[in-house]
Design a protein that fits this description.
It is built from five helices and seven strands, in the order H-E-E-H-E-H-E-H-E-H-E-E. It is of the alpha+beta class. The strands form three sheets. The protein has a three-stranded mixed β-sheet with strand order 4-7-6, covered by helices on one side. The chain has a two-stranded antiparallel sheet with strand order 1-2.
Length: 143
């Protein structure tokens, strides 16, 4: 083999090796190579930017008797809280005082937001204030 062929073949091998290691950049998710087999996500996720999207499983203790208590319990570690009592409508106060249905005593693999909407039912709309991280409920006009 001539020196020229060896040079061309080695150049191609180096170029191919370099191009094989280049990974496309994903603008939505950033991954950092931790080792040969493990990549970690260093970007943001929906749960990190909006804690109400966090998927949880909740089983309410027997001491939880009302929908309001269940809502407070559901919001405990989310960073959100229920609006102050003077900002709640009469309909929302009625919702909070209702007894917790047996079918709502346990939720598996639902987002916190989905749990809140399930607890309130179709008659209410969930209002989220992302600035103060407070939630409120308003009765739908159709009911």
């Amino acid at each position: 083999m001539t020196m020229r062929k060896i040079f061309i073949l080695s150049s191609l091998a180096i170029a191919f090796n370099l191009s094989a290691n280049v990974m496309p950049v994903d603008t939505e998710k950033s991954f950092q190579k931790l080792n040969r087999y493990t990549n970690i996500n260093t970007g943001y996720s929906a749960q990190r930017t909006n804690p109400l999207n966090t998927v949880v499983s909740i089983k309410y203790p027997p001491s939880i008797k009302t929908v309001g208590q269940a809502i407070f319990y559901s919001l405990e570690d989310s960073g959100y809280s229920l609006s102050k009592e003077d900002h709640l409508t009469e309909e929302a106060k009625t919702l909070l005082s209702l007894p917790l249905p047996r079918s709502h005593r346990q939720f598996k693999y639902l987002s916190v937001e989905a749990i809140l909407k399930t607890l309130s039912g179709e008659a209410y709309s969930l209002l989220v204030d992302p600035v103060t991280r407070r939630i409120n409920f308003y009765a739908n006009i159709s009911y």
